[in-house]
UniProtKB/TrEMBL annotation:
The organism of origin for this protein: Corynebacterium jeddahense
Pfam family, one: CRISPR_Cse2
Protein name: CRISPR-associated protein Cse2
Region (Disordered): 195-215
Length: 215
């Protein structure tokens, strides 16, 4: 059985689509990237499972494909399939009318939210992030995530969609959920610091190799 592949696959796919969309808009690749992102955005507006073609689209776009251990076997999507679906549909929403990257491996999702807090005059951002953290179910959490991604898009703040997909998969595991949310809370606080202070925190607070999760 091949090793888990979700994080790399989502990051590589986001980078490929982003490069074609931003740097080669008039090429065949750019046209195809716009089409794929538009289809993914349509899926983002629907509840997962209501569109039978949505998962098929996500799995067909992923390059490389998910590993054998991450692909579902039955009638329900696997945790990795769900995570890839939500990460890429949110990425597509983030890329709507974009002129700058939405995906970067230099900043985590929560750190991007902290950075948004530091440059925003909105008093509602921290309560939104807290509501996402304390959501009682995944449907509510994803609703808050969509709002936060929209706010990040408005301020042209990118984050690592590969690591984000990994975290979305871990959030489906009750034994790992609290650890992810704790790390997100820490990253949010670090993101609020000045860039020089963030550099001092990086080695202690951001693991370089996230542990693999099954399926």
């Amino acid at each position: 059985m091949s090793s888990p592949n979700l994080r790399f696959s989502v990051a590589n796919t986001a980078a490929r689509l982003q490069t074609s969309y931003l740097e080669r808009p008039d090429s065949i690749e750019g046209t195809e990237a716009r089409r794929i992102l538009a289809e993914l955005r349509k899926s983002a507006a629907r509840e997962f499972g209501t569109d039978p073609l949505a998962l098929q689209l996500v799995l067909s776009v992923l390059t490389p494909t998910l590993s054998e251990g991450e692909i579902g076997r039955g009638d329900a999507p696997s945790p990795s399939e769900s995570a890839a679906y939500y990460a890429l549909t949110l990425f597509a929403a983030h890329m709507q009318s974009a002129t700058t990257p939405a995906h970067t491996e230099d900043r985590s999702f929560a750190r991007a939210c902290g950075r948004l807090h530091s440059i925003s005059d909105s008093a509602s951002l921290k309560p939104r992030f807290d509501a996402m953290q304390t959501a009682r179910d995944e449907t509510s959490r994803l609703l808050h995530l969509r709002t936060l991604v929209s706010l990040l898009r408005n301020k042209k703040l990118a984050f690592d969609y590969g690591a984000f997909a990994h975290d979305l998969r871990s959030l489906q595991n009750p034994t790992r959920r609290d650890g992810v949310l704790l790390r997100w809370g820490r990253d949010y606080a670090v993101g609020m610091l000045r860039p020089s202070q963030q550099d001092e925190q990086l080695s202690d607070n951001e693991p370089t190799d996230l542990p693999a999760a099954s399926s």
